C-alpha cells in the first residue's frame, strides 16, 4: 500500500493506493483560512492536526502495511517554524496580499523583472520573497525567533519525521532558486533586502528528501518523501512529462503547466519555471490566482449550491446573454500570465433581466478565458490534461473544452497525492506502472460550433482585461 498526502489550502487529504494505482481509501478534512485586512493566514497546528487525522483514518480503512508515503501541498506563502518545527506565528498564505505595496515598488523599479531574468519566477504578494521582506519590516521579532522559513509540506515533513528543515527544488523555485544550478541565487536574496535573513532558507533536497516517520498518523519507520509541491505533483499524477504537454488544474488556484526543456527568461515577467526531479526539465507554470474560489464567491453571493451548477449552465447559452465576468477576485490581484497586484474582478452586461444562470455561466466562461490566456503564455503545443475539483462538473468540463478549443484528458481522483507517491517511488527506486497510474478517466472533445463562438469572445476578454489593467495601474 502506498499513501499520498496532499496538504491543500482549504482541504487536507490522504489517499491510499494499491500497486496498480487503484485508490483504496481517501480521507479529507477541511482547514480554515483567516482573512483580515488583506492578510490571509493559517493555523499550522490545525493543518498538522488535520494531516495526522486523515493519515490515521486512511491507514485504518485500507488493508496492508504502508510501503511508502509521499508528501505534497500548497506552494508559496511563509511557514515560520522554530528548531522543533513548531509555529512561530500563523502561516502567511500564498493568498496573502499585505506585501502588495512592496511588489508595486519592485515592479516600478525593475526588481521583479531582474529577479525573473535570474530565476524564472515572477514575484507576487503571496510569494516568499515579498512576504519575508514584509515580515522583516513589520514583524522582525517573528523572523528573529524562527529557525526556518518553510513551505507548507516542509513543515509537515519536519513534524512527521523529526528531520531537520528541508525543502525541494520545486518549492524553492519561487523566488530564490537558480533553475540552471538548482541552488539558491544569493544575489536575488540581496536584491530583496534579505541577506541578513539568508539563514532562514531551508536546505534544498535534490533529489527530494526522505526520512522515517516518527509514528504520528503513519506507522513508525514508514519511509516519507518530501515533495514536490502540489502543482508539479499533479503534473506527475496526470502523466504530464513530455515537452509541450500541459495540465490545467481547476482548483482554488487555476494553475496552467506545460512541460519543457527550454528555459526562456525573456518576455513579460509572469508565472515561474518549476524545477523538477530531472535536471534540464522544467514546468512552465502560470498559476493564476483566479480559480474555483471565484465561482465559490458567485455561488455564495447568489445563494446557488454547487450541485446546481450543471443545471444552470444548461439554462443559458454561450455568451450568457451578454453578461461578462473578469474573474480576478483575489485580494492580492493576479500573478499569471501577468503580475497586477491591484487588479480586481468586474461584472458587466448585467441587467434586471439577468439570471443566476447567466452569472454562473459568465463566471465559468471568464475562468475558461483566463485558463486559455495562461496556457497560451506557457507554450502549450501538445495534449492537455485537466484535474482538480472543477472536474466534478461535466457541464463545466464541456464548457472548458469549447472555450479552449481542444480535447481535455480528464484525470479524476486524488491526482496530487498520486503524484506524490510516484515521486516517492522514483526516489526509492520502486518500479510502478506510471501509464496505469496516470490513465485519464475521460476525454472531453470540444463542440466545433461553440468553439467557433468562443474565439472572438476570447479576443473580447483580452481587450476588457487590458483596459482593466490600465485602470488598476492608474
Instruction: Supply the CATH architecture of the largest domain.
Output: 2-Layer Sandwich
CATH topology of the largest domain: Nucleotidyltransferase, domain 5
**Percent in strands:** 15-25%
CATH class of the largest domain: Alpha Beta
How would you describe what is shown here?
This is Carbohydrate kinase. GO terms for molecular function: kinase activity. By secondary structure, this protein is an alpha+beta fold. The protein contains 16 helices and 24 strands. It has helices at residues 44-61, 100-109, 111-119, 128-138, 140-145, 152-161, 169-172, 186-191, 230-237, 292-302, 309-315, 356-378, 394-404, 415-428, 434-437, 448-473, and strands at residues 2-7, 11-17, 23-30, 34-36, 39-42, 68-73, 79-81, 91-92, 148-150, 167-168, 177-178, 183-184, 204-205, 209-212, 223-226, 246-250, 254-260, 272-275, 282-288, 324-326, 346-348, 384-387, 408-410, 442-444. The strands form seven sheets. A seven-stranded mixed β-sheet has the order 18-19-17-16-22-23-24, with helices on both faces. Strand 1 (2-7) and strand 2 (11-17) form a beta hairpin. Helix 10 (292-302) runs antiparallel to helix 12 and helix 13 (394-404) packs across helix 16 (448-473). The radius of gyration is 21 Å and the shape is globular. The termini are far apart.
